């Protein structure tokens, strides 16, 4: 099948490469000439395990190409995916200008029936707005060409995006036209084997499903973070509590890890956007407000613990930061807890020596050449001569450090762990003070 994808960002590239991998002819369109040039010369603008090889293989097979020519894109595919960004507006609601710009271009260039597929995470009602925009542009040309707008939200996790696309646990298709639903079913057939994972529903429910999933996961995390703070206050250990409650299948072990807050391009933005959507309809979503507020507070927690330990005297101290990315296996630092922490440390006059297996370039891009940020090549280089270690991202390579060597290098023998990677007694037995989340020191 012929497929066009607008937006060669994270979602667009993964979707394009995976659809090409199963034999479709995919054309990716982006307005950023530099990005398209990079992709056409074999480069990939983002880090995602396996993506570069997948793109290379499908480019070589002639099934995947990249262009800035939107009209060529509209001529190419029966399916026109919209996978452009929806950054938060100043008030936290989703900014639809990129999505509607694609709708404009489609309306101006449409010559025959097309299925427009919203893949971006967009507020409920966006598909209707996209359809209205296309219709407006068509009528300005005096045309009445048929098209459908489908909601088909993505559920990719950064770091596992290709696996998530190739073996989805569900494929949500929202359409009010049964014939279009069947065409989407055919498109997704290669990813929908063994048992039927495709859930057909109306457009608005599909749009809300995406927000509901992320909001539920974010709620689990904020709930556990709240409980971690309670555990600490009452003299309990949240890690034991976590294991104790996760065994109940109704609760489950996933997404109940307490920590220094959730980040990334999805949870913070989507929880806020859903809350703003509800409010715009006159409903106060109090639970969602609390999920956001608890997460915000949790992002301050490492700094509070550090400031308390050093009696507020951080000026001139150096902190070894292990991890910058918002989670392992990505270089993404959007809304990462590391950023809040570093900014607070800098404001208090401290220096940061950070190691992250892949996010150093991103940190350089975000913070430039600051004299109070040093990016080093490995975890021990961060520790040498530092006052304390702070663990922010749970990269696997941080799980079994030589704690005795760490202690020997530190000026103050203390580890602040925002991800509860170690058993407290094991750390304490090396003579290090261990301050983690929701446990007793
Ligand atoms: C999230 C969802 O998990 C995907 O299903 C969804 O498709 C995606 O958003 C999206 O909307 O595009 P992602 O943002 O890549 O995926 O990352 P997650 O693995 O969900 O982690 C999010 C944050 O929660 C991270 O900062 C992580 O450290 C934190 N987290 C996760 C916890 O603090 N505790 C947990 O138990 C789990």
Automatic annotation (TrEMBL):
Catalytically driven reaction(s): UDP-alpha-D-glucose + 2 NAD(+) + H2O = UDP-alpha-D-glucuronate + 2 NADH + 3 H(+)
InterPro entries, per the entry: 6-PGluconate_DH-like_C_sf (IPR008927), NAD(P)-bd_dom_sf (IPR036291), UDP-Glc/GDP-Man (IPR017476), UDP-Glc/GDP-Man_DH_C (IPR014027), UDP-Glc/GDP-Man_DH_C_sf (IPR036220), UDP-Glc/GDP-Man_DH_dimer (IPR014026), UDP-Glc/GDP-Man_DH_N (IPR001732), UDPglc_DH_bac (IPR028357)
Residues involved in substrate binding: 155-158, 210, 255-259, 263, 327
Gene Ontology molecular function: NAD binding; UDP-glucose 6-dehydrogenase activity
EC number assigned by the record: 1.1.1.22
Example GO BP: UDP-glucuronate biosynthetic process
Pathway: Nucleotide-sugar biosynthesis; UDP-alpha-D-glucuronate biosynthesis; UDP-alpha-D-glucuronate from UDP-alpha-D-glucose: step 1/1
UniProt cross-references to Gene3D superfamilies, sorted A to Z: Cytochrome c1, transmembrane anchor, C-terminal, NAD(P)-binding Rossmann-like Domain
Residues in UDP-glucose/GDP-mannose dehydrogenase C-terminal domain copies: 320-424
Binding site for NAD(+): 30, 35, 86, 121, 158, 269, 334
Catalytic class of the enzyme: oxidoreductase
Short name of one Pfam family: UDPG_MGDP_dh_C
Coiled-coil stretches noted in the UniProt entry, renumbered to this chain: none
Active site residues according to the UniProt entry: 266 (nucleophile)
Keywords: NAD, Oxidoreductase
SMART domains named in the record: UDPG_MGDP_dh_C
Functional note: Catalyzes the conversion of UDP-glucose into UDP-glucuronate, one of the precursors of teichuronic acid.
Family under the similarity heading: Belongs to the UDP-glucose/GDP-mannose dehydrogenase family.
Protein name as catalogued: UDP-glucose 6-dehydrogenase
